[in-house]
Amino acid sequence: MGTSIPEQVVTNDDLSEFLDTSDAWIRQRTGIRERRVVRPGTSTGDLAVLAAEGALKSAGSGEADLVILATTTPDHPCPATAPDVAQRIGLTGVPAFDLSAVCSGFLYGLSCAAGFIRSGAAERVLLIGADTYSTILNPTDRTTRAIFGDGAGAMVLRAGHPGEPGELAGVTLGSDGALRDLITIPEGGSRHPVGDELTAEGRYFTMRGKSVYRHAVQRMVESATRACELAGWRLSEVDHLVAHQANARIISAVGERLRLPAERCAVNLDRLGNTAAASIPLALADAATAGALRPGHRTLLTAFGGGATWGGAALTWPDITPVAV
Ligand code: UT7
């Protein structure tokens, strides 16, 4: 695994200087203290390259025969960012594509990577989750500015043996397009193309927080439970829940419903906020680096995001050292 977060820290107090919000509100309602934000000119691809380099270093080889980049904030609307990232890390020629499943992107990518490996179409897959939401947020919208941060996390996957630490034991994914408006950038796509007269607000990311919250808790609980069933584990046997870092209240509601004590539920959003597709790999790497996640630990992942999309995965933690770049 490899990770990369921007150097620039934006605290809740920093936001309160130009938005009608407060450190107390943001902490109480979300658990977030600060987030990392890229400086102008730094792109999602730049963070993805660093995280990918860290992952290849951690894996002990620069080789991969497929690159998947989960992101909603590509460097350009066209083409995909993954081929550029692949070329920049010395993987010119390998297949590379972007995957768009918003905050569930890393779990969708994990399922894709496993499918490529199981079918024999790839041997080593470099999976990256990277987002720079600071580039799509409305600067005047306190309901989103307080939540999101930028970052990237990457993982190298390879074929292994049943029972080997690192085994992906179960994955489940889902979606419901009827919820498309809950999380959206309303304009600038083919439905309201850039040639039309666009509104200033419509080009920015918008989220109906309360509704997202409700669906997120329900779908994350269901997906985590299903992933556990697919792995043949009982929930009581799970060592760690690493849920998408959307909101500390969502994580504790999901943990409570799964009857997992708080100390088994990973939280790093206090320092990073919601980093979208990067949030699960960043939380995994932090938990592993802190020694909370140890080889063989039964680890349950779950996420909910725009689309709406959701997913769950069960894996045993491998014996690896994540590299932060
Ligand atoms: O990553 C994809 C998944 N995303 C999520 O899972 C996010 C899920 N949603 C949430 O985490 C929460 O809904 C939020 C943190 C976004 C909002 O918390 P909430 O407790 O659901 O608040 P709310 O939306 O019901 O808003 C309550 C009040 C509103 O004011 P009025 O209308 O009651 O006057 C908001 O305008 O809080 C206001 N508010 C704020 N006040 C101060 C919303 N954001 C802020 C803010 N500072 N940053």
From TrEMBL:
GO terms for molecular function: 3-oxoacyl-[acyl-carrier-protein] synthase activity; beta-ketoacyl-acyl-carrier-protein synthase III activity. CDD domains: KAS_III (cd00830). Residues 97-177 form the Beta-ketoacyl-[acyl-carrier-protein] synthase III N-terminal domain. It is an enzyme of class 2 (transferase). It holds the Pfam family ACP_syn_III_C. Signal peptide: none annotated. It catalyses: malonyl-[ACP] + acetyl-CoA + H(+) = 3-oxobutanoyl-[ACP] + CO2 + CoA. Residues 245-249 are annotated as: ACP-binding. Its EC number is 2.3.1.180. The active site is at C103, H244, N274. The keyword Lipid biosynthesis applies. GO terms for biological process: fatty acid biosynthetic process; secondary metabolite biosynthetic process. Residues 229-317 form the Beta-ketoacyl-[acyl-carrier-protein] synthase III C-terminal domain. GO terms for cellular component: cytoplasm. It comes from the Bacteria. Pathway: Lipid metabolism; fatty acid biosynthesis. InterPro entries: ACP_syn_III_C, ACP_syn_III_N, FabH, Thiolase-like. Its main location: cytoplasm. Catalyzes the condensation reaction of fatty acid synthesis by the addition to an acyl acceptor of two carbons from malonyl-ACP. Catalyzes the first condensation reaction which initiates fatty acid synthesis and may therefore play a role in governing the total rate of fatty acid production. Possesses both acetoacetyl-ACP synthase and acetyl transacylase activities. Its substrate specificity determines the biosynthesis of branched-chain and/or straight-chain of fatty acids. The last Arg residue of the ACP-binding site is essential for the weak association between ACP/AcpP and FabH. HAMAP family: FabH. Belongs to the thiolase-like superfamily. FabH family. This is Beta-ketoacyl-[acyl-carrier-protein] synthase III. The lineage of its organism: Bacteria, Bacillati, Actinomycetota, Actinomycetes, Kitasatosporales. The gene is fabH.
